[in-house]
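User: Sequence recovery, please. Input:
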């Protein structure tokens, strides 16, 4: 990479600060290269040399670059401008450095476009100066770049040594090992189910189960950011597998789980590494969601969840409907009826078939009934004439429709 590849000439004040910006970047180049590689490492091929938009989003979030006046949607425009002129949608290292310089300036001067009146004092002087003064003094380069790197990017962003540091410092912690040990049997079963009998748990299988459990999310819970993206999950997977192209072996899954847990709950300060692993396992293997985990750790109020009722079945194998619909048997179908041994006397009084008459209504009394009988009902005890009908005509000369 050469300094000439950086596209900075369009920024205000260039070239007055060019040498100073060069010195700031050169003094931190090794760390910035490490950060770039860490976020670019989300694909098996070419991962260490290109950063896509989602990986850039991870970098912005973890470096804590977003402000109330300069959000990600606006910041992503700097990604596009740094990439201008290329035939791809990813950043190489020199484009990443260009973007950092641009972000540092516009993050420190989010209303810069409204201050342009300050450069046009020759015309409409009063309006232009008032417009510029409204937004305060301009924060110039290289100061804004130095501040952003020193206070946010270098201490907060992930470096490519993070995988090794995690293996050496976080994974061996007793609390992390205890959290994993408590669920080793369940993780073994999980591995067998998800890998579907294959010799490795493959990347797509891992990403698929995370997606199915709705664990890819970007939430703010009780003031804490809880975030897991596909690039983060891929990075944890690759860092945990001896042969990432093949997948995870059974003994590598707990390591991947621990890495993913610490990434997902990184922003929840009250949770230690062990609590993060325990919480993520509750997400992955159980029914707890992120809110349950965070609020349990922070002492927040966990919302009560509806209790699932066990299904009930009738003696003939039909699933019973809700009890309030079964109380009288008014709904047709066995599945909506209370069985005789389930009814109270009050139920029986309301039960639709309480007037059942064995001598009249039994099936054997229907033997020999004809189709003609069906027009009157095969169990009917009265002739139509008993209701005032004469020779098929309703009483009082009413038509058939009027009678009903």
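Assistant: Recovered sequence (404 residues):
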């Amino acid at each position: 990479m050469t300094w000439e590849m950086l596209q900075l000439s369009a920024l205000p004040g260039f070239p007055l600060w060019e040498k100073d910006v060069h010195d700031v970047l050169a003094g931190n180049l090794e760390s910035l290269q490490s950060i770039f590689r860490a976020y670019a490492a989300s694909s098996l091929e070419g991962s260490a040399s290109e950063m896509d938009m989602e990986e850039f989003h991870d970098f912005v979030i973890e470096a804590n670059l977003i402000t109330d006046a300069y959000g990600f949607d606006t910041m992503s425009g700097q990604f596009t401008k740094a990439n201008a002129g290329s035939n791809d949608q990813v950043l190489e290292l020199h484009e990443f450095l260009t973007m950092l310089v641009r972000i540092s300036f516009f993050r420190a001067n989010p209303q810069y476009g409204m201050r342009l009146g300050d450069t046009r004092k020759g015309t409409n002087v009063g309006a232009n100066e008032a417009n510029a003064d409204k937004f305060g003094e301009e924060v110039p380069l290289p100061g804004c770049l130095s501040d952003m790197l020193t206070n946010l990017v270098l201490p907060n962003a992930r470096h490519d040594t993070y995988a090794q540091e995690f293996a050496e410092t976080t994974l061996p912690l007793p609390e992390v090992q205890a959290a994993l040990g408590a669920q080793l049997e369940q993780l073994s079963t999980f591995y067998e189910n998800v890998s579907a009998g294959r010799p490795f748990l493959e990347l797509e299988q891992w990403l698929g189960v995370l997606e199915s459990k709705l664990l890819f999310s970007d939430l703010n819970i009780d003031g804490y950011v809880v975030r897991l993206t596909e690039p983060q999950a891929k990075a944890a997977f690759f860092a945990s597998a001896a042969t990432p192209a093949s997948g995870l072996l059974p003994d590598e899954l707990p390591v991947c789980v621990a890495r993913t847990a610490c990434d997902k709950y990184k922003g929840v300060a009250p949770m230690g590494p062990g609590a993060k692993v325990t919480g993520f396992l509750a997400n992955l293997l159980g029914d707890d969601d992120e809110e349950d985990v965070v609020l349990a750790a922070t002492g927040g109020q966990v919302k009560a969840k509806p209790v699932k009722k066990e299904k009930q079945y009738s003696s003939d194998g039909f699933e019973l409907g809700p009890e309030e619909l079964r109380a009288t048997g008014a709904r047709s179908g066995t599945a909506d009826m209370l069985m005789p041994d389930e009814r109270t006397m009050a139920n029986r009084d309301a039960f639709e078939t309480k007037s059942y008459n064995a001598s009249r209504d039994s099936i054997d009394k229907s033997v020999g009934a004809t189709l003609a009988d069906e027009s009157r009902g095969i169990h009917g005890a009265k002739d139509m004439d008993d209701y005032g009908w004469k020779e098929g005509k309703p009483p009082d000369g009413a038509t058939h429709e009027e009678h009903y």
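The chain has four domains: 3-156, 162-298, 309-355, 369-404.
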